[in-house]
Amino acid sequence: MLGRGLKRKLSDYEENMAGLSSAFDSSRNLPYSLKRQLVLNMCLTKLQTYKMVVEPNLHRSVLIANTVRQIQEEMRQESSQQPVNVCPIENSLLMVSDDDMSSAISSILKDLDFMEDISPPTSLVPAGDDEPKSPESTCLKLEDDRQDLKGAECVFGSFEISNSTSYLKDLAIDDIFEDIDTSMYDSDFCVPPLMTPRPPSSATEETLKTFPSCNSSSANNIPICRTDLSELDHIMEILVGS
Amino acid sequence: ETPKPPAAAAVCGGGGSDPVPAGASPWWAPQPPAPHTLRDMAGVAGGGGGGGGGNDFQWCFSQVKGAIDEDVAEADIISTVEFNYSGDLLATGDKGGRVVIFQREQENKSRPHSRGEYNVYSTFQSHEPEFDYLKSLEIEEKINKIRWLPQQNAAHFLLSTNDKTIKLWKISERDKRAEGYNLKDEDGRLRDPFRITALRVPILKPMDLMVEASPRRIFANAHTYHINSISVNSDHETYLSADDLRINLWHLEITDRSFNIVDIKPANMEELTEVITAAEFHPHHCNVFVYSSSKGTIRLCDMRSSALCDRHSKFFEEPEDPSSRSFFSEIISSISDVKFSHSGRYMMTRDYLSVKVWDLNMENRPVETYQVHEYLRSKLCSLYENDCIFDKFECCWNGSDSAIMTGSYNNFFRLFDRNTRRDITLEASRESSKPRAILKPRKVCTGGKRKKDEISVDSLDFNKKILHTAWHPTDNIIAVAATNNLYIFQDKIN
């Protein structure tokens, strides 16, 4: 369920979650907003876990993302209807995490796209025609990975800071990422304000804009990919070496 | 609808060693248009009716295949079960990429009580694990689906698929061997042509039966996402394969090309809210197929209307019941299996808690809904937490479309009689595995006082799930996959 290659350091956390979910099921007195918060946390945790797996399950990711969106929408509607004096926890959630949640979902789904759909669908095209496109798409994946990792960290980061009764309190953020070698990710491209700013964000936006069009292999975009091929070689050496 | 002749009559008819209640006609006798119902069988089962709430029909244990060990090897977990068109062959696929085919033994006149047993006919490795170096992904060898082709000659053909590649296998028998070749010796060595002074005609000699499986076609590189369904067309020349976002049409003879007939991938993946979960061709109309989605909808498409079937001909969706709405409503509405009835007039869908029968002529709601394990509705959060809520249960029809079957947890499986609206819960377990032992109906206690022999919801073992079941095309024989064991049950005989 958690996917391959993921160390199970979350066992204590999982026990807590199991206890909470059975409390959700059995208790009739749990306030609705608390139940909703619990479900939301579970959803985001799952999405986060899926991101760390090489090949996340598309079906599950979509279902969970839809659940998150549904809860988001509900909370948005509530906030627009309610007076100013709202429970501070929910308020801070709405203010801080809404955008982060959306970006987390977007990044996960975009990630699935780059990761899985490197070759376009073959309709009336002989199979095996996909090789030429691969080198470009592979380097896109690397760029996107770096950016997504930061985005995902932000979701958890904002939860920790804003929500004092967060169910994730027991979980140290660093533990999740301890196993991941982020040395090659620590170079460029970071947008969120919580992290140390790196190269100017305009460069990030430019690169982002060129991503969708890279698939069409237009001549303009090839230079960008060429500079990354040497990095790709470097990474391949590391992978093959280990 | 013409009533199907009860084929099972040939198997257990005539004996009459059990007294038939006066006034009741034996169920195998020609009746006025009565389809096979579970109640009709009561005549043969020795006056049925006894034992637990309204279970007139009685199922018996027949066989169990697989290791008894408590320690289950991951590779041995059965991932698909399928009878062929005649029911003589039963194929299983497992997580290790192997296919095992069982064959029903011929009826033995001297032992009428031993109904045709299924014994191993052929075993072969269908798929191997692959590693996609470019994407750094491991491609699982698990067999997702097996579909038989209708038999056209002495050999048998089936399609088996993992996440990415479909293979056509030919299973053939060899019981003769040629001897007396001119150019080579008996052990295969080439003879010196100068030594040959006379010609002889090779003769065929009998040998021990050998069953060979050989891959005849490999259909690869057409699916970016994970294949969840394959379905052979009624034209017996084409078949479809479906993954999360696309459906492709293949010709059985052509492996380097497939035609994309459905594509629901949005231009921007961030807009993705729905995936394809299952697809099947209509049993009679070769231009019609259906596919189900993670939002609980079914689309029927006609390939004659356009090349790319993005626009459906019919759209089946049941309006949501607002009183049962929860955070998990969408997740549990996701359809895990869709199956046409043999008649082609109905289709059945399985979602997490229920099975629904749809009339193809009515799109706005199903004609029948059967609750599989409604007691789980109050446990959805826990089931979401441990991922059980994503389990994909299959469902199947019996030969006459009068009954349906699907699996549940704790190795329970459920059968529903569409005519009498009776249902029964049975368990696939080693404890009730004595030869021809009648299966006792099981019951889950939902709350309050637990009666004897009932099991409470909290005691259910959610690791023992029955996802794959199959019903013989004509007889009352069912195959139930319980993790690494295959159980075969039959109806009670005289």
UniProtKB/TrEMBL annotation, chain A:
It comes from the Eukaryota. GO terms for cellular component: nucleus. Coiled coil: none annotated. Signal peptide: none annotated. PROSITE patterns: SERTA. Residues 32-79 form the SERTA domain. Pfam families: SERTA. This is SERTA domain-containing protein. It comes from Chelydra serpentina (Snapping turtle).
UniProtKB/TrEMBL annotation, chain B:
Keywords: Repeat, WD repeat. GO terms for cellular component: protein phosphatase type 2A complex. InterPro entries: PP2A_PR55, PP2A_PR55_CS, WD40/YVTN_repeat-like_dom_sf, WD40_repeat_dom_sf, WD40_rpt. One of its GO terms (molecular function) is protein phosphatase regulator activity. PANTHER family: PROTEIN PHOSPHATASE PP2A REGULATORY SUBUNIT B (PTHR11871). Belongs to the phosphatase 2A regulatory subunit B family. This is Serine/threonine-protein phosphatase 2A 55 kDa regulatory subunit B. It comes from Chelydra serpentina (Snapping turtle).
